[in-house]
Amino acid sequence: GMQTPEKATTASNATKMLDLGGLKPNSTEVERILTVLEETLAQLELSSLIPRVIEALDRFADVLGPEITNHLKELQRLSNEMQDLLPSSEEKDRVGADGQAACLCSLQQRLSSSARGVLRLLRASPSLCQALKHEAVARGSPAEAFIKAFREFRNFVLERLLTSPTEEERKVQFLEDISLQIQRHAKAVGALQAELAAATRTREQEIYKKDNVIRDLKSSMQDLTTDCKASIQNIKEEGAKKQEEELEASQERCARLQQDVQQLEAQLNALVLEHRASELALLKRKRRMETEIFNWIQKYDAHMEEKQAEYEEVHAAYTEEKNQLSLLMERRALLLQEYSQIEEERRKQEEKEERELEELNTLSRAATRIQAFWKGYLVRSLYSSKLKKKKKGKGKGKGKGKKTKK
């Protein structure tokens, strides 16, 4: 029949394995056997993923599609029925055992058919199978153990198929050589064990000698311990003597120190009495100084109250004068403004008077000149008329009459 894409991939994998082994498939039967083993291994791996996918069916629903999801739900339902039916079949009596077995066999056939249908749909989509292998990695330990055992079986069959008769003979010969080497090695091990026993005996003798030496050392240590005890006793006696001597000396020192302490206590009592008298004098002085300080504080407070009252009065007068000053300054500003206006008007008036006076002077000078000119003119005209009267006669008089008419 025609190969599916998954079967073609499995066959190519088997061929690659043969190529990697350094041998080529020498018959179609070898390729078929390897293809069957590879397909079985792939179906086992995919079947071990189905329970994991069914447990998380909601998460894989979008990846699987509606058809595969419905088949998985049907497979889950049949599996639940099988689980419910198995305990009840164990509890049934022998009368209904045959009917229960027939129902269980039918349910098992439907479950197997449903599982094959799911595997067929999954194998039709290699990319979906790869995605499920990445997503649903965890498998149950029994399934994983079975897959591992089947993979080892596949490798063993592959090794057997790739081994030629000549290589088989070489392998048998190699095993025989190995067995001979094992025998030779066993003889060598026996000889080594004998040498080890001899070395062990020699070492035990050496250990016995060392034990004797240790016993001698122990006896010498005991003697040394006895000598040490005697020396320790002597040291203790000498220490007791020294302790008595040191005790007597320390008692004498304690007596001297006790006398010194009594003398120092007497000096201390005298100093205490002296210091108490000085303390009483200082206390009286302190109280007197406190009284004086209290009086000075009261005087200072009274003086400060007077100064505060005086300051408040001065401050009130100052505030009043300041307010009056501000009013006077405002009036001064107004008066200055009025004064500036009056000065401006006075300046304008003076300028106007100066202009009028200048115009009057100009007019008076002009009038004086005009009058002088007119007087000169009259004088010249009278003088000229008198000269004409002398020179001319009546005609001249008519002319004059005409001029006067004019």
Automatic annotation (TrEMBL):
Where is this protein found?
A: Cytoplasm, Cytoskeleton, Flagellum axoneme
- Name-wise, this protein is Dynein regulatory complex protein 10
The keyword Protein biosynthesis belongs to this UniProt entry's keyword annotation: no
TM ranges are: none
Q: How does it assemble?
A: Component of the nexin-dynein regulatory complex (N-DRC). Interacts with CFAP52.
What UniProt keywords apply to this chain's record, in alphabetical order?
Answer: Cell projection, Cilium, Coiled coil, Cytoplasm, Cytoskeleton, Flagellum
* Signal peptide annotation: none
Summary of the function given for this chain in its UniProt record: Component of the nexin-dynein regulatory complex (N-DRC), a key regulator of ciliary/flagellar motility which maintains the alignment and integrity of the distal axoneme and regulates microtubule sliding in motile axonemes.
- Tell me what gene encodes this: Iqcd
Primary site of residence: cytoplasm
Where composition is biased (Polar residues), the residues are: 1-15
- What highest taxon heads this organism's lineage? Eukaryota
InterPro entries of this UniProt entry? DRC10, IQ_motif_EF-hand-BS
Q: What organism does the UniProt record list as the source? A: Jacana jacana
Q: Which residues form a coiled coil?
A: 240-366
What family is it from? Belongs to the DRC10 family.
Is Isomerase tagged as a keyword?
no
PROSITE patterns cross-referenced by the UniProt entry: IQ
Q: Where is this region: Disordered?
A: 1-22, 386-406
Q: Which SMART domains does the entry link to? A: IQ
